[in-house]
């Protein structure tokens, strides 16, 4: 079993599907939450489980939100009790609102949940193919509790990217990262990434 426990991936589209399969291939325990699990092909050949959202949340230590941002509030309302005490990893973007993250919403509706943000500032194509000239790109993330950083870093690393810490409790900087990337996507294409260099 994965050292970080089970990750529920809520959403089986391009973002959720790509991330969940990468997590599973890296050896992490993954359960996809799907409205129609019997018909879902999200797991592919990874051996990950597919269940209802209720079952996925109940089984999870970490819950990745990869659903349309407009659905986040209803999801939190429906699953508030089951999400209590769990790590909620927000990959959603609330376009066209100026604040893209759902940190305030999660913390208001599920006060005991631990909030983190990652996977919002890159396109799914990067998660599917995260290397340029043989070298991985970096992905920014934030957590509110430093104790949750190893879990988020493990999931970022599972995708093949290098975790880049954006500070404690700074989901606004993750929003800014996406705003910076959007013009680059328009100029260079969606599989455009970042690489940090240092001594």
TrEMBL record:
Annotated protein name in UniProt: NADP oxidoreductase
Keywords: Oxidoreductase
Molecular function per GO: oxidoreductase activity
One Pfam short name: F420_oxidored
Domain Pyrroline-5-carboxylate reductase catalytic N-terminal residues, every copy: 8-93
Source taxon at top rank: Bacteria
């Amino acid at each position: 079993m994965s050292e970080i426990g089970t990750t529920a991936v809520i959403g089986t589209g391009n973002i959720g599907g790509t991330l969940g399969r990468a997590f599973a291939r890296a050896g992490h325990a993954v359960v996809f939450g799907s409205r129609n699990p019997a018909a879902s092909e999200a797991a592919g050949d990874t051996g990950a489980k597919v269940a209802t959202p209720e079952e996925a949340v109940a089984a999870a230590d970490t819950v990745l939100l990869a659903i349309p941002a407009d659905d986040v509030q209803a999801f939190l309302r429906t699953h508030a009790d089951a999400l209590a005490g769990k790590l909620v990893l927000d990959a959603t973007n609330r376009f066209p609102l100026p604040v893209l993250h759902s940190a305030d919403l999660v913390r208001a509706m599920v006060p005991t949940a631990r909030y983190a943000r990652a996977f919002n500032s890159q396109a799914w194509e990067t998660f599917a193919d995260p290397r340029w000239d043989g070298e991985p790109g970096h992905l920014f993330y934030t957590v509110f509790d430093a104790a949750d950083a190893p879990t988020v870093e493990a999931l970022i690393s599972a995708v093949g990217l290098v975790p880049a810490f954006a500070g404690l409790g700074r989901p606004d900087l993750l929003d800014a990262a996406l705003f910076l990337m959007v013009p680059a996507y328009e100029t260079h294409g969606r599989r455009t990434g970042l690489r940090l260099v240092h001594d």
